[in-house]
Design goal:
Layout lengths: L3 H17 L2 H27 L5 E4 L3 H5 L4 H4 L8 E4 L2 H4 L1 H16 L2 H7 L2 H12 L3 H12 L1 H6 L2 H33 L2 H11 L1 H41 L4 H22 L5 E3 L2 E3 L2 H4 L1 H16 L2 H10 L3 H20 L2 H9 L1 H20 L5 H21 L2 H13 L2 H23 L6
Antiparallel strand pairs: 1-2, 3-4
Length: about 450
């Protein structure tokens, strides 16, 4: 304890301060900062997730002007596209989140070969045989009428039926060879990163769902904590303002309070990645506390909408490596077609010529490729197979180190968080000006 004179001086100062303080203004500041903190986090969530697509106006010359602005400002949605408006930060960065999701999580969840094995190639082969079998006569007729119409027209129907039957009998081995070849080369044919990035970019609502479906409770809590943080930060602001008597102080401190409130809200959700005690209180990021539950939600979305058998089929045939897939399947199908010709192969080569026979064989192989993989695009069959992908993704997501899980969820928006903090600072300053307009300078005599 200090000397009696010093203690007496402090007591006198407090009494003097208490007599002249504007109590209504003083007490209202924490309430103001609390409400502003709530509004900051509430509107910040809107900025994160809405709208899904850019909404605004195109401004002539804005695209060129934007290239001259600081890099951070260029990141504001729409500027580099020549518009003034807004798109939710998460949907605007959907492609980026897809890339990070692959690098941080999906690549660790399993290789393309592992995903393919989860889809049970044997069952895929069985389904292909079931679906493709009835199409055999039509396929053979189509090719033969195109490549050798006279021979096929003059061939007696019993001989045609024998060809159909032989091709149909060879179908299981043909399809088995096809699915085996896909499995052997799947790492070169399938690129999950491109699949995920393209799908997230085309469907930004999926990225929003990843946050919303398992994190809505935590996001709502962050909004409520905005009031708590704002109220607590408002107490020292009220004290400093009552002593300084400066008109500029509340707006400036409002900027600080708004920035800190948003920063604390983001920290509350994502940090710390590992549980630890801070001032005796156990702290753990709100999202991280439910990683196991999040794994189930995330796996559901990935299995039902992103890495599905249907989308794998689309990618294999129509993706950037589709030509390679088709050529590989044609090569795999040629021997099977020779086997289907059976003992008649030599006679056919003599009758129609070796070159013509090879042309027919090539044509049958090319026609069969699309039809062979058609069952990959069967939505009902794809949905039945999705359960195994979901189990794999959920199991591996549960096993992710917490820091990797945080990075997967946060990295896509980390570079844009400054927009949320700037938004909080602007609203904090606005709250300071509003308080001044209502109560004037606190403590002014």
């Amino acid at each position: 304890m200090g000397p009696p004179a010093a203690r007496g001086s402090c007591v006198d100062w407090v009494h003097d301060w208490a007599r002249h303080v504007h109590w209504a203004a003083f007490l209202s500041i924490p309430l103001f900062t609390g409400v502003v903190g709530w509004l900051i986090n509430w509107s910040g969530l809107l900025m994160l997730f809405a709208p899904l697509r850019f909404r605004g106006v195109r401004v002539p010359g804005m695209r060129e002007l934007a290239t001259l602005l600081p890099r951070k400002v260029q990141e504001v949605p729409g500027l580099l596209q020549g518009g003034i408006g807004w798109q939710g930060i998460v949907p605007a960065r959907a492609a980026k989140m897809g890339s990070i999701a692959v690098d941080k999580a999906i690549a660790k969840l399993g290789t393309p070969a592992e995903f393919y094995r989860q889809l049970e190639p044997d069952r895929i082969a069985e389904h292909i045989v079931t679906v493709f079998g009835p199409e055999i006569p039509g396929l053979v007729d189509q090719v033969m009428r195109t490549e050798h119409p006279r021979l096929w027209r003059d061939l007696p129907q019993p001989f045609k039926d024998a060809v159909y039957q032989r091709v149909r009998a060879q179908l299981p081995s043909v399809v088995g060879r096809v699915t085996d070849e896909i499995g052997i080369h799947i790492d070169q044919l399938l690129d999950p990163k491109i699949m995920v990035i393209d799908h997230f970019q085309e469907n930004p609502d999926l990225v929003v769902r990843i946050f919303r479906d398992f994190g809505q409770k935590e996001l709502d809590m962050m909004v409520r904590f905005g009031f708590v943080f704002g109220f607590l930060l408002g107490i020292p602001v009220a004290l400093v303002d009552s002593i300084a008597h400066q008109a500029w102080l509340l707006p400036v401190l409002g900027v600080v309070v708004g920035w800190i409130t948003n920063a604390l809200g983001m920290w509350l959700i994502f940090e710390p990645a590992e549980p630890r005690r801070i001032l005796g209180v156990r702290a753990h990021g709100l999202f991280l506390r439910r990683q196991a539950e999040a794994a189930g939600v995330y796996a559901q979305i990935i299995a039902d909408d992103v890495i599905t058998l249907e989308r794998i089929g689309d990618f294999l045939l129509d993706g950037p490596r589709g030509d390679r897939t088709r050529q590989m399947l044609v090569t795999a199908l040629r021997p099977a077609i020779d086997q289907a010709a059976g003992p008649a192969r030599g006679a056919l080569r003599v009758a129609i010529g070796g070159t013509r026979f090879d042309t027919i064989r090539e044509a049958v192989a090319r026609e069969a490729v699309d039809r062979t993989l058609t069952p990959f695009k069967d939505p009902e069959f794809s949905a039945r197979q999705a359960g195994r992908i979901r189990d794999l993704v959920e199991r591996r997501t549960r096993e992710l180190p917490p820091r990797d899980f945080v990075d997967m969820m946060r990295s896509a928006i980390r570079e844009d968080e400054w927009m949320l903090y700037a938004h909080g600072a602007i609203m904090g300053a606005a709250g300071g000006f509003l308080h001044l307009a209502i109560f004037g300078v606190q403590g002014a005599r």
